[in-house]
Amino acid sequence: MTENEPTDHPANAAVSAGDPRFLTQDDLAVDTHQIVGPDGSYDADDVPDLDAEQFRDLYRWMVTDRVFSRRMVSIQRRGELGTFGSTRGQEASIIGSAYTLRPEDWLYVGRAWTPMFMRGASMEDMILFWRGIEEGQQAFAEQNSQVAISIGSHLPLVTGLAWGMDIRGDDAIATAYLGDGATSTGAAHEAINFAGALGVPALFFCQNNQYAISLSADEQTAANTLAQKALAYGMDAIRVDGQDVLAVYDAVSEARERVREGEPVFVESVTYRLDAHTTSDDPTRYRSDDEVDAWEENDPLERYREFLKAEGLWEDIDHDAIVADIEAEFDAALEAANEFAEREIVEIFAHVYEEMPPELQRQYEEFVDLLDRRPELYDYIEQRPKG
Amino acid sequence: MQATIVEAVNDALHTEMAADDDVVVFGEDVAESGGVFRATDELLAEFGGDRVVDTPLSEIAIVGAATGLAMYGLRPVAEIQFSGFLPPAFDQLVTNASRIRWRTRGELTAPMVVRMPYGAGVRALEHHSESMEGAYAHIPGLKVVAPSTPHDTKGLLLASIRDPDPVLFMEPKRIYRSFREEVPEEDYEVPLGEAAVRREGEDVTVISWGSMMPATLEAVDELDADAEVVDLRTISPLDTETVVESVKKTGRAVVVHEGPRSNGVGGDVVARINDEALMYLEAPVERVTGFDTPVPLLSMEDYYFPHPPRILDAIERALSA
Ligand SMILES: Cc1ncc(C[n+]2csc(CCOP(=O)(O)OP(=O)(O)O)c2C)c(N)n1
Fold first, then answer.
1. Is B126's Cβ below 8 Å from some Cβ in A?
2. pLDDT above 90 (res A9)
3. Complex ipTM over 0.90
4. What is the 3-state secondary structure (H, E, C) of chain A?
5. Separation of alpha carbons B86 and B80, rounded Å
6. Partners of residue A384 on adjacent β-strands
7. Which of A257, A345, B142, B260 is the most buried (most CB within 10 A)?
8. Measured from the CB, is residue A212 less than 6 Å from ligand 1?
9. DSSP state of B55
10. Which residues of B carry out catalysis?
11. Closest-CA residue to B253 (of B207, B201, B288)
């Protein structure tokens, strides 16, 4: 068969005559999966099959996410962290999705911290991470998990992790959490296409929180939705209301099942980052108070509370006690992080290679010797606040 | 006008956008929010959304599109938000921007500037702290500039935008706001490819640039000898003559930089001194550099870049040999 001969591929089935027909975004209806509406109403038939304990668990994790963000922002303001990116407003999106994952699944996040706790990482490790202490990353790695700082850079890795699972025949998936901004990176496009072409168990969970620092999602791309981007790569997608924890759970559970069978899936979760992009950002420069207020009204915790009340589950939940527990956990974690042992100089040189090359060894020894001979060097090093 | 380095960047952009309608400024968060460091503040208000553009989060397209714009005849000034996010676009620099003149025998060229803050010491996250000028200076056809003072920043940036070749403009963010100096309101250029003698001296030549300049000057101030300080200002093409002339006079040299030692710019400076002034040397040339490691995350980043005592130690070694 020559290359130009028509194949029996379904794409070649229909032929149109006359003027060329444009395929447009309007040819594609992309709806948004929702179970509990903004006013708390829902159809009982649509509710995912979880037990009372699990419904309460979802709430508890959402509160954890909110309290953790609040505490981190507050210790950052006291100069105890370099910077921090709050996730307030995205709790349903983050928890609903992560609740579907199993410990053997890989989790590579952009903006989402509590999923790490859900798989066993400690708040102490997360504080260490944000203090720029490499042991934070080391601890996450023990849980099949990492945070990517270079936006989009993790997607090809997730494709590779999934490929490995496929080769080994392991019953697990690899998940990339990404933002709306990340969908513009070259790495994302290559990774998603590659995962589709190879058919590997990768799940791309995109939290469209409406902004990539100052750029709104509307300006990020001319596409109507981010979900539809997956179709170009032959990958199925779901768009879900990211303020509805049950809808996110439902969507990602189904996606995970399909991914396990070797069909990668892209999920767009529509949500909002209520706080600044990070503690170094001033959001008043690029968004209106009205917009923020409207999303404050669309609080995912409030919405889920309405559901819990309607189901008679709220009476068993002591919100204040949950908050108090998490605050105590945070206090203990902060104390432990503050006691993190003074690090040795060798930490700078360790783990660059398995075996330290002679030149690096020389640089290390010279530096230790210099610190010994010229202790005034510490004045320059220690002038700065504790990381 | 008294200005900091980042204010001088902003002033140069205002100056050149007003002077030349072909100059367009773009990158992530540069327009509406004025840049994460405010380097592009007020440009949108003054020059409008056609010439000051917030782009998608797309480093490859930012650098590649700058190359295309420049080939078409515009004067793009693109911002990469932090130096650690240039690597995805390295391909565009190597494959296109730096080679288009060579490939087309001068029929097509890419007069463009890619600006980016670089260097450690601002308590940022991973990938926000590298000094990779060695890697970029390794690309033939690409000019690499690293100013160390507000005055030079404005003059070098104006010269870079007007330069007929692609320029990577590396801004030393650790000292973005650490001091002010007089910066002329008017238009002036500091030529690319010319080092500055920051301080004259007879005993030893200390060569540095960009983010390491203040620490170098501080070390020299504490020295019991008469040091000459050369600020390279342009890393590529490198001003061998100024370096060699100085070393011929002093007979001793120390190179100070923030990036990793191996295969770094320091090695090249030493090689040029060996090539052209070996017989004048009274001591081996010393290098004070970052380590051959990734920049440590913020808890230990302050150990990484050379502080004055480390520079002083090397200068004293050069003097006593
Ligand atoms: C490759 C790259 N370019 C630029 C940055 C600087 N930066 C950090 S976060 C961010 C916006 C990210 O937006 P998005 O992907 O939507 O994720 P969000 O933080 O909103 O969850 C940018 C531009 C980066 N970290 N990596």
1. yes
2. no
3. yes
4. CCCCCCCCCHHHCCCCCCCCCCCCHHHCCCCCECCECCCCCECHHHCCCCCHHHHHHHHHHHHHHHHHHHHHHHHHHCCCCCCCCCCCCCHHHHHHHHCCCCCCCEEEECCCCHHHHHCCCCHHHHHHHHCCCCHHHHHHHHCCEEECCCCCCCHHHHHHHHHHHHHHCCCCCEEEEEECHHHHCHHHHHHHHHHHHHCCCEEEEEEECCEECCEEHHHHCCCCCCHHHHHHCCCEEEEEECCCHHHHHHHHHHHHHHHHCCCCEEEEEECCCCCCCCCCCCHHHCCCHHHHHHHHHCCHHHHHHHHHHHCCCHHHCCHHHHHHHHHHHHHHHHHHHHCCCCCCCHHHHCCCCCCCCHHHHHHHHHHHHHHHHCCCHHHHHHCCCCC
5. 6
6. none
7. B260
8. yes
9. P
10. 128
11. B207
**Residues linked to residue A269 through DSSP beta bridges, in sequence order:** A207, A240
Residue A180, ligand 1, Cβ within 6 A: yes
**Beta-bridge mates of residue B208:** B231
Is B85 in the A-facing interface, judged by CB distances under 8 Å? yes
Q: What is the dihedral of CA B272, B278, B283, B289, to 10 degrees?
A: 10
CA distance A360 to A211: 42
Q: Cα separations (Å) of B169 from B115, B142, B151, B182?
A: 5, 10, 15, 21
Closest by CA position to A174, among listed A115, A70, A102: A102
Best probe of the A interface among B81, B303, B320, by most A CBs < 10 A, is B303
pLDDT-derived band at A194 (thresholds 50, 70, 90) equals very high
- In angstroms, the Cα distances linking A126 to A131, A146, A176, B94, B169 are 9, 11, 19, 38, 35
> Residue A238: what residue type?
I
Global confidence as pTM: 0.96
Enumerate the β-bridge partners of residue A106: A174
Residue B300 and residue A219: Cβ atoms within 8 Å?
A: no
Residues lower than pLDDT 70 in chain B:
none
Beta bridge partners of A270: A208, A241
The kind and range of the H/E element at B24 are: strand B23-27
A8 pLDDT higher than 90: no
Cα separation, A339 vs B18, in Å, equals: 55
List, for residues A24-72, the tens digit of each pLDDT value.
999 999 999 999 999 999 999 999 999 999 999 999 999 999 999 999 9
Coil, strand or helix at B275: helix
Length of chain B: 321
Is the Cβ atom of B85 under 6 angstroms away from ligand 1? yes
pLDDT at A259 over 80: yes
A349 HSE (CA, 13 A, CB side): 19
- Which of A286, A319, A343, A351 is flagged as catalytic? A286
Query: Residue-wise over B167-200: b if at least 16 C-beta within 10 A, else e?
Result: bbbbbbbbbbeeeeeebeeeeeebebbebbebbe
- CB < 8 Å to A186, chain B: 58-61, 88
